[in-house]
User: Fold these one by one.
Assistant:
Number 1:
Amino acid sequence: MERKRDSKKLKPVKKQKRSSRKSISRMQKKASKKNNKFAGMRNVRKDIKIDHASFVEGYKLSVTFNTGEIKIVDFGNFITENKFPFLTKYKEQKYFKNFKIEEGNIVWGKDWDLIFPIKQIYNGRILL
């Protein structure tokens, strides 16, 4: 037992059992995953880039990565529910379809009005 000095008296302090400490840390991890919007996203190598993208339908794009993987990514949730007034034009299909690949990422607009982290695109989860 350890002793703790508290207002001129020494009181014994019990150590937590090792198993209870582990269960507490497990509960904390579970709670942080529930509250973390990035939970469940796989780590993505920093050298992954987008080689090609093509319009599929709605707000979905077929994205080809430099690893050879092809994924269908749905941007619909972000496009339809974003609160930024300067991005509302991308709700129209003619503007959404007008994207380009620059520096290994998909960008919209002359000054990169709309761009997403590669990690989100690779995992197929575009976050608000």
Note: Residues 11-35 form one domain.
Number 2:
Amino acid sequence: MKANYHTHTTRCQHAFGEDREYVEEAIRAGLRILGFSDHCPWIYQNDYVSNIRMTPQETDGYFASLEKLRKEYEKDIPAVYEILKNGSAVAQAEAAQTLHDVRAAMKINYFEDAELIASQASKYGDK
């Protein structure tokens, strides 16, 4: 699943474009998850203003904008859940096949050989 959990906005002073443009580009790129992660405001001593963080005055607008976009695009969430559900089933089948292949390649069944398990437990278990 394609995802981006680290998207900054212009509020961090090192990104370009509008919040909506990020959402729309993520959709065009086939991303299923888009996370915004602007640097939170920080109040420094001596009235210093960071050039990589949003200001405290921008915080409300940041959350308002992203919440508005989330509500606008949430109509697509059921389709995303279906994709995730199908993807989970595929991943589970892949994991089962991989485990089967690993067991076959090892030629020792560490998972079901009771005698081997007992010998390892007595050798390495709590004493």
Note: The mean pLDDT is 83.
Number 3:
Amino acid sequence: MMNEHHGIRYHDIDHPHYKYELDRQYSMHSGLSLPLITDSDEHFRLGMLGTDLQDRLSIYFVGNRYVSLSRSGLLTLVEGYAWDGPSGPTFDTPSFMRGSLIHDGFYQLLREGWFLDNHDLVRKVADQLLYTACREDGMSWLRAKLVYFALRAFASGAAK
């Protein structure tokens, strides 16, 4: 079944590890700039991401073919990206889907080892971005805070 909520379009999939797959690319500015990256950093790949001039000039990014983060902080999840939706004892509601997508993208980059020097900072930013997206998408402040505190207390293993 195809779903569209708060700027993301996706469908349910039958997969042992994932529940959803993006039907079109989703990008958002994370507010996380990576100023310590240099052109010689072996962890970064050359690529062209984004549609605005700032991101076209900032051509170094971390990631893989499905999820990437540009040096200026543009998180991009491409069509075909699969994720498991909200995790834990919760319900997959429209107000939770975009936040779970953003969060899963960041945690995937963390698990792949892209932020060894800034792991804890990037994890905290990912958790905060989930909270912000959920609130923007209509989740109650109480539920969003409970989700955020559960992530901070129990999700560190999912980012390793």
Note: The chain has one domain: 2-159.
